[in-house]
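Note to self: keep these together.
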Amino acid sequence: MSDSGHDPDPAATIAGGRSPRSRAVLLSLVGIALLLIGIAAGLLIAAGLDDDPDAAAPAASPAAVGFAQDMIRHHEQGVEMAAIELENGTDPQVRSMAFDILTAQSNEIGQMQSWLTRWGQPLINPSEPMAWMGHDHAGDHHMSNMPSTPSMSPSMPSMSMPSMSMPSSSADTETPPMPGMATSAEMNRLRALHGPDADVYFLQLMLRHHEGGLHMMEYAADPANVSEDYVRSLATAMKQTQDKEIAIIEQMLAERNSAPLPMN
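Structure:
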């Protein structure tokens, strides 16, 4: 996320005066292009592991494979939330944040998909999410060693938004596959909101989403867990970026008199 001196809404600059449908198509094409760039970059990195094209696929540590598979899934929802905000939101500052997230995470998804392809591993984790970290995610969703942030401080003022009340349904108690991820009910609600309500709810969901993914990044950045230096480098870069964005989102929510969501 750049400082306040940059174009406050790059998505609007790219989309110009196009209709909402045209903007959505254009933003989708931007995401696809970045995904392909990420795949190409990842393939170049992976190709450097083995100069012999006829050699067997390089072996990968279980933690590296699990990180790539689960982080792709985590990122894919983040990209979807950002695309919804770009379509339904109206606040230039929030839309700029969404554009940054969509472009960065689309590129990272491409890199991780290319690694898995090179390693001969499936793109979708066939096991329990985060089992590669030694966690029984289904039985320990609220991990005690999740990173804490100021947004979770009990000293934060309690603020209510009547228009943002959650409907009561069985989907409200759905357990998302990984910490920080939105439930299907929450995603449907984000899709239904427009204007300032969409801006605020996107920030709330994305703050929790970012916080929930930090633990995977920290684990994958540790040489004791992952042997591949390029995987550790990407995990470290992800965490640095998301730490900065968490601070910015917290400030945005405070400026809009809105409280963060509790970790799920």
